[in-house]
Amino acid sequence: MKPLIGIIMGSTSDWDTMSHAADALKQLGIPHEVEVVSAHRTPDKLFHYAEEAEARGLEAIIAGAGGAAHLPGMVAAKTPVPVLGVPVQSKALNGMDSLLSIVQMPAGIPVGTLAIGRAGAVNAALLAAAMLGNKYPEYRKALVAFREQQTEKVMTNADPREQ
Ligand code: RP5
């Protein structure tokens, strides 16, 4: 099936984090692709990826990066496809650098920024699913079912001593 969501990241070292976005999309049955696209190591590839995204049918891009994390902002600047940014937890500054680099976009080019690390990656996928759900009822249904299961899991495991 043609991918509807593109998951990109600045480095293979981001995969530990970004794999959680891919897992969540897989769980919801949403076709997606995964690719390393570095803003500073492969800038031409970044431009090409962003310029082609809409024509290839991508309806959202989840972009993860760490440190001076300009990948999500640069991609957003080159495509009208909505971009969700995931700050990867960096070693030096624990991801605060990534977070501020991604979230502080000047007015005009938005990047929907999620939390640092795994939570951000999972939530980027869930948010992308919610966006797709406006157009594809099957993905809205899958998201609702996921949330119901999540609630059920908490309700049936309420005593932490029994975990
Ligand atoms: C960023 O630099 C990447 O997104 C990654 O989080 C960080 C470090 O990259 P590596 O040096 O591990 O390749 O571009």
Give the topology:
Blueprint: E1 5-9, H1 15-28, E2 32-36, H2 43-53, E3 60-65, H3 71-78, E4 83-87, H4 96-103, E5 112-113, H5 118-133, H6 137-156
The structure holds 5-O-phosphono-beta-D-ribofuranose.
The site of 5-O-phosphono-beta-D-ribofuranose has 10 residues, from loops.
Function: Catalyzes the conversion of N5-carboxyaminoimidazole ribonucleotide (N5-CAIR) to 4-carboxy-5-aminoimidazole ribonucleotide (CAIR).
Protein name: N5-carboxyaminoimidazole ribonucleotide mutase
Pfam families: AIRC (PF00731)
Which key phrases capture this entry?
single chain; alpha/beta; Rossmann fold; 5-stranded parallel beta sheet; 5 strands; 47% helix; binds 5-O-phosphono-beta-D-ribofuranose; N5-carboxyaminoimidazole ribonucleotide mutase; purine biosynthesis; PurE_prokaryotes
